């Protein structure tokens, strides 16, 4: 995978150069502040329909003129930038698609990753825009658009990778102390490999700091996220490994990420999908995602239906 090309402000459409540690920490602070504001405004969310007929949320969003996106503060998918504005690959895609669906404004609702599905189903926001991986357990709780990307994992390790950690099996074999994010798919992959010492942390920046400070030996996350945080922090104490292919029941796993919607709202999901597929076909989707570190290698034609199968 090609190295990240820096962040893009979704409002500006301009690339910004290497964000250093201070900027990353500022972004985390902005995320918390925006989350507090979002919680205060939760009562203004557009309610879902009693939607045996596919739902009427899209019509309501058009009348309201805006859609609220659930973000998890994870680069490069969806987060609050250092200037306090919403950015990331998912908000960028959402802004484009919802504008074409007649909804001109997108608004953020930051939360932690583990609260995204609960927040969606309790109507705190309208759509999960956090690059969420599709898996059967999540498909039982929400409906997904077709994925916009596919992804392998990578590790943050101390400089030089002294324990030679190149797979989850290596982590288990060496007894290394591992960390990952709350609710991340990497938890399941580590447990499947027999990893016993696992800590959960709020995000990839916390993971980087934990590795630098020697509190854990490795942080596991998606390849593009890990590479972005290492590159942008300018760290001299840690590095990102090459891509890691997880195994489940002995078979390699390639994850895919997508937007999630409340289960009754199939009309909204289907309208979103139609626009997404047009963008895939034209190459516009890759153009929007490339500034956030995605490459052609991460584009996919896998469907949500395929990944929802047990």
Care to describe what's here?
The protein is of the alpha/beta class. The chain contains twelve helices and 17 strands. The strands form five sheets. Strands 3, 6, 7, 8, 9 and 17 form a six-stranded mixed beta sheet that branches. Strand 15 and strand 16 (251-252) form a beta hairpin. The longest helix is centred in the first third of the chain and has 20 residues, at 21-40. It is globular and about 55 Å long.
Features:
310 residues, alpha/beta, 6-stranded mixed β-sheet, disordered N terminus
What is the quaternary state of this protein? single chain
Mean pLDDT: 86
Q: What structural category do the secondary elements indicate?
A: alpha/beta
Largest sheet: 6 strands, mixed
C-alpha termini separation: 29 Å
Shape from CA axes? globular
Q: Compute the gyration radius: what is it?
A: 19 Å
* Strand coverage percent: 15-25%
Uncertain regions spanning at least 5 consecutive residues: 1-49
Number of helical regions: 12
User: Element order, helices and strands?
Assistant: EEHHEEEHEHEHEEEHEHEHEHEEEEHHH
Bin the helical content: 25-40%
Number of strands: 17
């Amino acid at each position: 995978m090609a190295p990240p090309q820096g962040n893009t402000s979704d409002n500006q459409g301009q690339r910004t150069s290497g964000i250093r540690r201070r900027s990353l920490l500022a972004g985390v602070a902005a995320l918390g502040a925006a989350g507090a504001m979002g919680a205060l405004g939760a009562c203004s969310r557009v309610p879902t329909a009693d939607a045996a007929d596919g739902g009427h949320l899209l019509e309501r969003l058009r009348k309201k003129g805006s859609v609220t996106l659930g973000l998890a503060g994870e680069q490069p998918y969806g987060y609050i930038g250092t200037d306090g504005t919403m950015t990331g690959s998912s908000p960028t895609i959402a802004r484009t698609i919802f504008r074409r669906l007649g909804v001109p404004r997108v608004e953020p609702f930051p939360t932690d990753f583990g609260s995204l599905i609960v927040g969606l189903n309790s109507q705190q926001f309208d759509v999960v825009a956090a690059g969420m991986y599709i898996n059967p357990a999540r498909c039982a709780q929400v409906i997904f658009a077709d994925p916009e990307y596919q992804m392998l994992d990578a590790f943050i390790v101390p400089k030089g990778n002294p324990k030679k950690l190149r797979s989850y099996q290596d982590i288990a074999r060496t007894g290394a102390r591992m960390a990952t994010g709350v609710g991340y798919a990497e938890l399941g992959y580590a447990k499947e490999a027999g990893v016993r010492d696992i800590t959960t942390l709020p995000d990839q920046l916390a993971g980087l700091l934990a590795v630098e400070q020697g509190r854990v030996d490795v942080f596991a996350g998606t390849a593009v996220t890990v590479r972005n945080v290492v590159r942008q922090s300018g760290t001299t104490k840690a590095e990102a490994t090459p891509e890691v292919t997880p195994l489940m029941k002995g078979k390699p796993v390639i994850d895919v990420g997508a937007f999630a919607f409340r289960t009754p709202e199939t009309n909204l999901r289907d309208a979103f999908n139609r626009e997404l597929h047009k963008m895939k076909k034209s190459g516009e989707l890759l153009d929007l995602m490339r500034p956030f570190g995605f490459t052609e290698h991460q584009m996919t034609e896998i469907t949500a239906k395929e990944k929802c199968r047990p």
